[in-house]
Amino acid sequence: MDRIAIIGVGQTPYERNKEDTFDELVFEAATKALADAGGEIGDIDNIITVSNDFWDGRTISSMAIQDAAGCQGKDISTVEGDGTFGILYGMMRVLSGSYDTTLVVSHMKGSESVMNLITNAMFDPIYQRGLGIDATSSAALQARCYMEMSGATEEDFARVSVKNHKNAFNNPNAQLPLDITVDDVMKSKKLADPLKLLDCSPVSDGGAAVILANEKGRKRFKKDPVWISGVGHLSDSYTLGYRDLARSRALTGAAEKAYRMAGIKKPLKEIDVAEIYDAYSYMELMWYEGLGFAPEGKGAELIRSGDTGPGGALPVNPSGGVLSAHPVMVAGMARVIEAVLQLRGEAENRQIAKAKTALAHGINGPCGQAHCVYILGV
Amino acid sequence: MAHWLEETENMVYAGRIKVPYRWYVGEVGSRFLTTLRNKKEIWGTRCSRCKRVYIPPAKNCGECFSLTDEWVQVKNTGTLQSFTVVRYSHDMQPRSVPFAYGLIKLDGADGSLLHFIGDTDLDALQVGMRVEAVFADEREGSILDIRHFRPVGGGDSNG
Q1: Domain extents for chain A?
Q2: Cβ-defined contact of B84 to A137 (cutoff 8 Å)
Q3: What does the radius of gyration of chain A's CA atoms come to, in whole angstroms?
Q4: A4-113+203-218: which CATH architecture?
Q5: Which of A38, A121, A344, A362 is most deeply packed, by most CB within 10 A?
Q6: pTM for this one?
Q7: Which residues in chain B have Cβ-Cβ distances shorter than 8 Å to A241?
Q8: How far apart are the CA of A205 and the nearest CA of chain B, in angstroms?
């Protein structure tokens, strides 16, 4: 396979109730990515836009922001899903041989609608939607499945929240830096047992963009490349109840593919920094297991060890993670961008020293139905 | 002179999308729902290859990618695999809080069914509890023809 470089990245600060339109978010992210790459819109061969119609409240939302994405004279295709899958498609478009560069841009204004109503509508209308289930109540069911399987406790989940919200102080784009304790999380408002307010990611607005290029296309830009050395992506059953919610075989499989491609045998040792999709606190522990950072059922031991904290063997979510800003559709792309900044040594106060290999991860569908894993290197 | 933006009130346009839908529930869904409505029985489909029994019924097995063309009745009883007590309110919820969801592995089924847990002290729910279906008096061919599941042998009426 041809090597694919990430040559430019851009993101808006993530906030609730941002005073920007969808167009403004897309334009800001795209122009920041171009400036970061040291190029112009004319250097882009094709564009992928990432958005969701229900969240935006319009049919074919991905077609509505195309002027802001720089579409004139270009082919645009669209992804309805997490930004990691948008990058995947953008990468495939370059690998197809039709294009040498792709701009992938994503946007979200969670604050403009109602998260619970929107996520209720992702469930099957015949059997599940009418029960009122949504992202948080379904996550609560998964959290308990995981507790039963692993023995992890609510305090273990709280440790993830404490770590990531504290990390967010080092990320100027994060929405929710918090100096909190396990006790604060445990005493936060009960939403859907075992999940409490501080186990849940916030409603967020923001935009992000990346520029992908092959060996030929990257020469149009001034920036040094970060290379995608491995990628894996898998999906599992949609219907809650059909799949094992306590173990993510889709993530295990996706990670195995990405590691094989990148030549990684011992992820905990060989990866220097990871940015993973912690939409809810417990997910980080589950994803440790799926990613092979911890054996099955041992995710809690890894967070307790401190190895995924600042200064640990494998810092996870030094940006503050999704718990500290959750623009849906954008959040996985933000993980990739954070990994790129780490490898360039541009991560400022959240920089992990000598980071040479980074992992970025995104999810799509209820309770992590699909997973996309990237290994990046310089 | 101040920048024009500093003197501008930020406006929002409040809207609402209302679109009626009529979703065909499918052949297997039609049989599942009419049997719930008419007989208070729960029927699923079995994969001809891996023998997995799907509730609600699937037209094809996601594991084997083969047709699930055999019908089997499962029990109205099962085991609670997971649960949550919901304590926040939104318009789409048909019950007032607190209420509980469960994932119920019905006897004779593989996987589990998402539904409400009721008629019991929600603070006493435990994974592994035996539960049974309570059917609605007025049934119209919907998943809510099962009102909820309750602990086997009844419980109190708080749910």
Answers
A1: 4-113+203-218
A2: yes
A3: 19
A4: 3-Layer(aba) Sandwich (3.40)
A5: A362
A6: 0.97
A7: 55, 103, 111-114
A8: 15
